[in-house]
Each structure stands twice: as structure tokens, then as C-alpha cells.
């Protein structure tokens, strides 16, 4: 579905994407993770055939975006980070009129509009104006609108940003249903739990290059441990206490408010901490997550 080799995107002397290789297979959910400025959005715009490639090779659906842009865009669905709904139209017309842009016959668009209203659970809001909808409803409508042309490839840029947990989980369920129906998904997200839930494979981008690639589970196995023991001591004590526990795990990370001990047996770490006479104010054991991998690869400091 997507093949990139040495893909580059430059803006003057600034290289936003610096020679990445990407393969996206039919029917999978593929994720792009990375901090702000990592090159995710520039990559997505090239994949959407709305931003020209600066170097390397890119094929979308087997086509060259430099020469086949309209043919590619006709087979894509795009859900942008910001909702771009028509506020002057009601919910049904947002779908119907958008479908007509693709030249889809009126009768077919009406049928698809009804199907997508049901899919987005907005049938009872069909005559409501966009401004009357909640944030979650607007996102569901935006995703529904991106499906009006029955795309082979659906691009989702930060699909659940700003939503409450209930709305996020509802959207996850709908996206999972789309994948089960054979739609190929390409997702950018800042939510690590979202990537773990939705993505079959993903790449972690940083400063325009790919730092790691694989399934969420494979990345956790490769770059982290099975569990993490979190130890909280008094303010200012963590730096000095790190040396006393550094042999208890594969790696110890010092944060301003806690120590993270990466290990395959967190309960054993807690027991040994107490054996050494150390009494943390609070302690917990959790499984390693994609967030641990992400922060190890891209760092905890904010990018400029």
C-alpha cells in the first residue's frame, strides 16, 4: 500500500524527513510516533499526495504521487488533526456534499451517508448543526466523512486528540472495526496507549529519521524490560539513592520525583530495596509500555 525508500522532505536548507524507508501492508494498522518536529506530519502530507517529495522514492497504492496525485487522492481517506467540518451545514449534508466532490452518484451518496451516520452513531443527530455536536461527535463525523469514498487507505492524524477517555475508546472500537473490514490505516498519535491498542506495526521517528520499527510488543521487548519498579523518595534524594539500587535492574533512570528500575521482576526489586534499609515514600510495579520505549529513544527533554 505504501513503499518509501530513502524518502526525504526539505524546506530550504532544513531537512524535515531525512531518508526513511517505510513499508505499509494491505489491511494493517501502521503507526508513526514521534515528538513534535520529528517529521511525522511532513511524511503524512507526502503520503497524502499533497506535498511533493524532495528526494528518494515513494509509491502509494502502486502509483507515483508526482504524476498520479489525483488518482491516489481519489482512493484515500484523510482525517486531519483539526476538524475541517462545514459549520453552516448539518451533519447529514457534511457527508452528502463531501461525497459529491468525488463524483459519486446522488443515490449512492445518500445510501453511504445513511450507512456512515449509523457507523458513527450520529443517526439521531443527522439534522443537527456541527456547532451543536460534542468534541467526540465531531471527530466521529470527521472520520465518517473520510470514509465516504470507500478508501483503500485511511490516513488519521492524531485522531483522538482532546477527547475524553470514553470518546477515545469509542473511536478505537470504530477504527478496529474498519481494520477488520479490510481498510488499511496509517495513524500518527502522541498517545502511547492508542498506538499499543491500534497499531500492528509502527515506527518511532525522531529528528527526521526512523529510530525503531516493529510491533508494539517487539519494541517493548527490544528496548525495555518486562516490568518497571517506580520508587518515590524525598525531594532531592533520588540522585544520591540511584547508586544504591542500580544493580537491581537492567537500567535505572533518575527523574526529579522518582527512580525507575527496569527489571523482569518488579516485586523482587521492591523486596531487595527494603532489605537494604531503603524506605520509599511510595512504590509500585507496572508492566513496561510503549511510552518507556518512546522516551528511551527520543529522550524526556522538550524538543526546540
Automatic annotation (TrEMBL):
The keyword RNA-binding does not apply. It holds the Pfam family ABC_tran. Belongs to the ABC transporter superfamily. SMART domains: AAA. One of its GO terms (cellular component) is plasma membrane. Keywords: Antibiotic resistance, ATP-binding, Nucleotide-binding, Transport. It comes from Nocardioides gansuensis. It is found in: Cell membrane. This is ABC transporter. Residues 2-232 form the ABC transporter domain. One of its GO terms (molecular function) is ATP hydrolysis activity. It is a peripheral membrane protein. Its main location: membrane. GO terms for biological process: response to antibiotic. InterPro entries: AAA+_ATPase, ABC_transporter-like_ATP-bd, ABC_transporter-like_CS, ABC_transporter_ATP-binding, P-loop_NTPase. It comes from the Bacteria. PROSITE patterns: ABC_TRANSPORTER_1, ABC_TRANSPORTER_2.
